[in-house]
Amino acid sequence: MEQKVNLEIEITDDGSATILVPELNEHYHSVRGALTESNHIYRDSAFLHRCNMGGTARLRLLEIGFGTGLNAVVTAMVAKEQNPVHYITLEKYPLDSDLTSQLNYNKLVDKDLYRLILEAEWNNPVAITPYFTLEKRSADYLTADLPSGIDVVYFDAFAPEKQPEMWSAEAFGRLVNTMNSGAVLTTYCSKGVIRRLLESLGLTVERIAGPAGGKREILRATTP
Ligand SMILES: C[S@@+](CC[C@H](N)C(=O)[O-])C[C@H]1O[C@@H](n2cnc3c(N)ncnc32)[C@H](O)[C@@H]1O
Predict the structure, then answer these.
(1) How far apart are CA 215 and CA 153, in angstroms?
(2) Band of residue 56 on the pLDDT scale cut at 50, 70, 90
(3) 14 pLDDT more than 70
(4) 150: buried, middle or exposed (CB in 10 Å: 19+, 13-18, 0-12)?
(5) Residue 212: predicted pLDDT
(6) Whole-angstrom Cα distance, residue 47 to residue 26?
(7) 68 in ligand 1 pocket by Cβ < 6 Å?
């Protein structure tokens, strides 16, 4: 995939904005609801689920594809004293601020947190709140050194049909090597081939309900 050009903003079914990449005919989020997707698939089914499992003081979370920062802000909004997080996110093509400033998230999320997240320096950890440290890495997931000791993975790459190299056995093998025991990965993609791939790498994979009004099922995978 080459650097994106001519990105367009669209409004999804829940009223929150997303970005369309016309040359891929691919959106950054579900057109059924961008905010609904971030809240359900990533914040609730991965981060809060892992928090509820207990056992780790400050969780280390790895997101594949920072994009608009929507997954980051909804996570920051629930990161509290009892569930602090170090949020590491990889992005090969950071978006321009003139585009992110046109998204309508300020009306839907904590706008001060969102501004801090967008403006945070790249490639250095930044304490956005006492409970949410953000590390935006300007990096290619396929070739960069990956962080270690990860408890939660938000796997939010473009779809396998559009960017198959992000979903290869080799790439998932590297990703699973970053994960601690009892770590949780979620993705919107529920394809059997991805479920079997994650199982072949030793993870226990569940198909769980997707967001209301959106995809029927999503995947949640847990390391032994
Ligand atoms: C589905 S969007 C992610 C949406 C994002 N999580 C959000 O909350 O807005 C996929 C993201 O992966 C990024 N991406 C594509 N190829 C990548 C690569 N090789 N390494 C890192 N990021 C990549 C894209 O630029 C895009 O921002």
Answers:
(1) 20
(2) confident
(3) yes
(4) buried
(5) 80
(6) 25
(7) yes
Query: CA–CA separation, 195 vs 204, rounded Å?
Result: 9
| pLDDT (0 to 100) of residue 214 | 56
Task: Give the position, in ligand 1's atom list, of the atom nearest the Cα of 90.
Answer: 21
How many angstroms separate the CA atoms of 4 and 6, rounded? Answer: 7
pTM of the model: 0.97
At 103, which amino acid appears? L
> 139 CA distance to ligand 1 centroid (A)?
10
Cβ of 91 closer than 6 Å to ligand 1, yes or no, is yes
Indicate if ligand 1 lies below 6 Å from the C-beta of 158.
yes
* Domains of the chain and CATH, by start: 33-97+110-222 (3.40.50.150)
- Tell me the two tokens of residue 178: 């970053």
Mean pLDDT of 155-169: 97
CB distance 68 to 52 below 8 Å: no
Q: What is the DSSP string of 161-199?
A: TT-GGGG-HHHHHHHHHTEEEEEEEEES---HHHHHHHH
Q: Is the CB of 157 under 6 A from ligand 1?
A: yes
CA proximity to 201, closest of 177, 220, 219: 177
- Sheet containing 8-11: which strands, arranged edge to edge? 8-11, 17-21, 26-27
Residue matched to tokens 């608009």: 68
